[in-house]
Task: structure prediction
Amino acid sequence: MASLATHLSACLLLVPIGIRRLLCSSSLFLKNPSLFKSKPWYFSNPKWKNLDLYALTVALPLASFSQIFIFLSISGHSTYRFSFFQQFAALCLFWVLIIFFVTLDILDHFVFNESFIFIYAAIAFLVEYSAIGVGITGLGTVVYGLLAQLTLLCAGSCLVLSVKPTAFFADFMLSTGLVFKGTWLLQAGLSLYTDAFLFEGCKKMVVLPGNPNADFHCELQDDSIRAVALVNLLFAVHAIAIVIASFVVFGLLSSFGNLRCGEARGPLLAELESECSDAPES
Result:
């Protein structure tokens, strides 16, 4: 979490993934709620529409290598420095997860058990959770603590889906959690690493000589209390806006079938219709 650029990059990765998942899972659920089954990744047909998946195979290793580069370039043996190595490990786990998805797309059938992939994703989120906020003190602990809660939400959703893939609510929570993580990362980058959006009386994140941690502090206690209150308010505003937007999207998809994700008309629809035809008539 070295700068606004890293936070913006993470936002640009997470938000589209979350929105895509929300659209595809909601479209599939609305087709036939009783036969809904969550997928680790919702593939599109034709395959060129899965370009975003292949873009992630390039973006994630670049992001992970940037973390290890920062780890090697920062002088000293500080907690903050080694936090970049932890972030590198977490990104590598997600890169392997994307490789799983690409393998599924290329072979056009599941060579991995879907429950295993959800469990692996949950483990990757938990590893990321362990690295969030490491080496950061002051108000930054509040900001990244809220981000860690969102990561736990995603991990918990994956664990639920590994046991019960028919749980649309868990898929819905995973989708909105990914979007929320993306927007909150952008908010963290703006609030902690830029002068324009700093809280009154506070200084942006710095690593002081002789200090093993990166510090974001406010001059006065009143400024610190006000900043914490503003962080919590911003988090609540993000949460309300994302939940309302998600329900609006679901309502639009429910009312207008032509708006539904193309995935629901592709291979998943064929699978769903096959299940419908095989189901015994009551």
